[in-house]
Design brief:
Layout lengths: L16 H13 L4 E5 L8 E8 L17 E7 L1 E7 L5 E8 L6 E4 L4 E6 L4 E8 L22 H10 L8
Antiparallel strand pairs: 1-2, 2-8, 3-6, 3-8, 4-5, 4-7
Length: 171
Protein backbone atom coordinates (compact mmCIF):
# COMPACT_ATOMS: atom_id res chain seq x y z
CA UNK A 1 0.00 0.00 0.00
CA UNK A 2 1.29 3.45 -0.87
CA UNK A 3 1.61 6.07 1.84
CA UNK A 4 -0.17 9.26 0.86
CA UNK A 5 2.00 12.25 0.25
CA UNK A 6 1.23 15.43 -1.64
CA UNK A 7 3.47 14.39 -4.53
CA UNK A 8 2.35 12.94 -7.83
CA UNK A 9 0.99 9.44 -7.25
CA UNK A 10 1.73 6.58 -9.58
CA UNK A 11 0.22 3.84 -7.40
CA UNK A 12 -3.32 3.12 -6.30
CA UNK A 13 -4.20 5.05 -3.18
CA UNK A 14 -6.08 3.27 -0.42
CA UNK A 15 -7.56 5.75 2.03
CA UNK A 16 -7.81 4.28 5.53
CA UNK A 17 -8.95 5.65 8.88
CA UNK A 18 -5.25 6.11 9.68
CA UNK A 19 -4.93 8.58 6.79
CA UNK A 20 -8.10 10.39 7.91
CA UNK A 21 -6.65 10.59 11.43
CA UNK A 22 -3.42 12.13 10.10
CA UNK A 23 -5.27 14.76 8.09
CA UNK A 24 -7.56 15.53 11.04
CA UNK A 25 -4.58 16.00 13.34
CA UNK A 26 -3.04 18.43 10.85
CA UNK A 27 -6.35 20.31 10.71
CA UNK A 28 -6.52 20.53 14.49
CA UNK A 29 -2.98 21.97 14.56
CA UNK A 30 -3.68 24.47 11.76
CA UNK A 31 -4.61 28.06 12.57
CA UNK A 32 -7.52 27.72 10.09
CA UNK A 33 -8.65 24.43 11.73
CA UNK A 34 -8.73 22.67 8.38
CA UNK A 35 -6.38 20.79 6.12
CA UNK A 36 -6.86 19.43 2.64
CA UNK A 37 -5.13 16.56 0.91
CA UNK A 38 -5.17 16.85 -2.87
CA UNK A 39 -5.45 13.85 -5.15
CA UNK A 40 -4.97 16.08 -8.17
CA UNK A 41 -1.37 16.86 -8.99
CA UNK A 42 -1.38 20.62 -9.56
CA UNK A 43 -3.63 23.66 -9.21
CA UNK A 44 -3.82 23.78 -13.03
CA UNK A 45 -5.39 20.28 -13.32
CA UNK A 46 -8.82 20.28 -14.93
CA UNK A 47 -10.35 18.07 -12.23
CA UNK A 48 -9.75 18.69 -8.55
CA UNK A 49 -10.34 15.88 -6.06
CA UNK A 50 -9.42 16.27 -2.43
CA UNK A 51 -10.07 15.30 1.16
CA UNK A 52 -10.72 18.20 3.48
CA UNK A 53 -10.50 17.75 7.25
CA UNK A 54 -12.34 20.45 9.16
CA UNK A 55 -12.60 21.06 12.88
CA UNK A 56 -15.36 22.87 14.78
CA UNK A 57 -14.59 26.59 14.88
CA UNK A 58 -13.21 26.73 11.35
CA UNK A 59 -14.83 29.59 9.41
CA UNK A 60 -15.23 29.56 5.65
CA UNK A 61 -16.49 32.87 4.32
CA UNK A 62 -19.60 32.21 2.26
CA UNK A 63 -18.64 32.24 -1.38
CA UNK A 64 -19.66 31.08 -4.82
CA UNK A 65 -17.92 29.89 -7.96
CA UNK A 66 -19.07 31.81 -11.02
CA UNK A 67 -17.37 29.58 -13.60
CA UNK A 68 -20.12 27.42 -15.16
CA UNK A 69 -17.78 24.40 -14.89
CA UNK A 70 -17.26 24.74 -11.13
CA UNK A 71 -20.21 22.89 -9.61
CA UNK A 72 -18.92 21.17 -6.45
CA UNK A 73 -19.73 17.73 -5.08
CA UNK A 74 -19.05 17.14 -1.38
CA UNK A 75 -19.30 13.78 0.40
CA UNK A 76 -19.04 13.53 4.20
CA UNK A 77 -16.74 10.65 5.03
CA UNK A 78 -16.55 11.16 8.78
CA UNK A 79 -18.21 13.44 11.29
CA UNK A 80 -21.11 15.85 11.07
CA UNK A 81 -21.24 19.00 8.97
CA UNK A 82 -23.71 21.69 8.04
CA UNK A 83 -24.17 23.22 4.61
CA UNK A 84 -25.86 26.60 4.17
CA UNK A 85 -26.97 28.02 0.81
CA UNK A 86 -27.64 31.78 0.62
CA UNK A 87 -29.30 34.07 -1.87
CA UNK A 88 -27.32 36.99 -3.31
CA UNK A 89 -28.19 39.21 -0.31
CA UNK A 90 -27.14 36.73 2.38
CA UNK A 91 -30.57 35.35 3.28
CA UNK A 92 -30.56 31.63 4.04
CA UNK A 93 -32.27 29.72 1.22
CA UNK A 94 -31.50 26.21 2.37
CA UNK A 95 -29.56 24.30 4.99
CA UNK A 96 -28.67 20.66 5.37
CA UNK A 97 -27.02 18.65 8.13
CA UNK A 98 -24.83 15.98 6.60
CA UNK A 99 -23.12 13.10 8.32
CA UNK A 100 -21.45 9.85 7.49
CA UNK A 101 -23.90 7.10 6.54
CA UNK A 102 -26.91 9.23 7.45
CA UNK A 103 -29.87 10.05 5.25
CA UNK A 104 -27.93 12.99 3.76
CA UNK A 105 -24.19 12.68 3.22
CA UNK A 106 -23.62 13.92 -0.34
CA UNK A 107 -24.41 17.33 -1.80
CA UNK A 108 -23.94 18.85 -5.22
CA UNK A 109 -23.71 22.66 -5.18
CA UNK A 110 -24.34 24.34 -8.52
CA UNK A 111 -22.00 27.10 -9.60
CA UNK A 112 -23.18 30.60 -8.78
CA UNK A 113 -24.77 29.65 -5.41
CA UNK A 114 -23.30 31.26 -2.30
CA UNK A 115 -22.49 28.61 0.27
CA UNK A 116 -20.48 27.79 3.36
CA UNK A 117 -19.67 24.63 5.26
CA UNK A 118 -19.57 24.15 9.06
CA UNK A 119 -18.01 21.36 11.11
CA UNK A 120 -19.95 20.14 14.15
CA UNK A 121 -17.66 17.31 15.22
CA UNK A 122 -13.95 16.96 15.68
CA UNK A 123 -12.20 14.90 13.00
CA UNK A 124 -14.83 15.65 10.36
CA UNK A 125 -13.60 14.95 6.83
CA UNK A 126 -15.27 15.42 3.47
CA UNK A 127 -14.33 14.54 -0.09
CA UNK A 128 -14.65 17.35 -2.63
CA UNK A 129 -14.62 17.27 -6.40
CA UNK A 130 -14.84 20.24 -8.76
CA UNK A 131 -13.29 21.49 -11.95
CA UNK A 132 -9.87 23.09 -11.98
CA UNK A 133 -7.74 24.96 -12.39
CA UNK A 134 -7.55 26.44 -8.90
CA UNK A 135 -7.92 30.19 -8.97
CA UNK A 136 -8.28 32.38 -5.88
CA UNK A 137 -11.83 33.62 -5.35
CA UNK A 138 -12.57 36.97 -6.95
CA UNK A 139 -14.27 39.80 -5.03
CA UNK A 140 -17.47 39.03 -6.94
CA UNK A 141 -17.36 35.41 -5.71
CA UNK A 142 -16.93 36.35 -2.04
CA UNK A 143 -20.04 37.22 -0.07
CA UNK A 144 -19.88 40.97 0.56
CA UNK A 145 -22.45 40.56 3.36
CA UNK A 146 -20.34 38.12 5.40
CA UNK A 147 -17.18 38.72 7.44
CA UNK A 148 -13.91 37.78 5.82
CA UNK A 149 -11.96 34.85 7.21
CA UNK A 150 -9.86 36.13 10.12
CA UNK A 151 -12.05 39.19 10.82
CA UNK A 152 -12.96 39.70 14.48
CA UNK A 153 -16.65 39.38 13.64
CA UNK A 154 -16.27 36.00 11.89
CA UNK A 155 -16.54 33.99 15.16
CA UNK A 156 -19.86 35.62 16.08
CA UNK A 157 -21.15 35.10 12.53
CA UNK A 158 -20.12 31.43 12.63
CA UNK A 159 -21.98 31.05 15.95
CA UNK A 160 -25.12 32.54 14.39
CA UNK A 161 -24.87 30.11 11.47
CA UNK A 162 -24.47 27.14 13.82
CA UNK A 163 -27.69 28.16 15.60
CA UNK A 164 -29.56 27.41 12.37
CA UNK A 165 -28.91 23.73 13.05
CA UNK A 166 -29.83 23.50 16.75
CA UNK A 167 -32.98 21.46 16.17
CA UNK A 168 -31.29 19.27 13.53
CA UNK A 169 -28.38 18.23 15.75
CA UNK A 170 -30.67 16.66 18.35
CA UNK A 171 -31.54 13.71 16.14
Amino acid sequence: MAVITEKKMTKTQLITSHILDEISLQAKQSSRLRKNYNFHHADEDICHRLLNAMEPGSYIQPHRHLDANKDETLIVIRGKMGLIIFDNCGNVEEKALLEQADHAMIVNIPHGKFHTWISFEERSVFFEAKAGPFLPLTQEEKAFWAPKEGDESSAAYLTSLKKLFESDKER
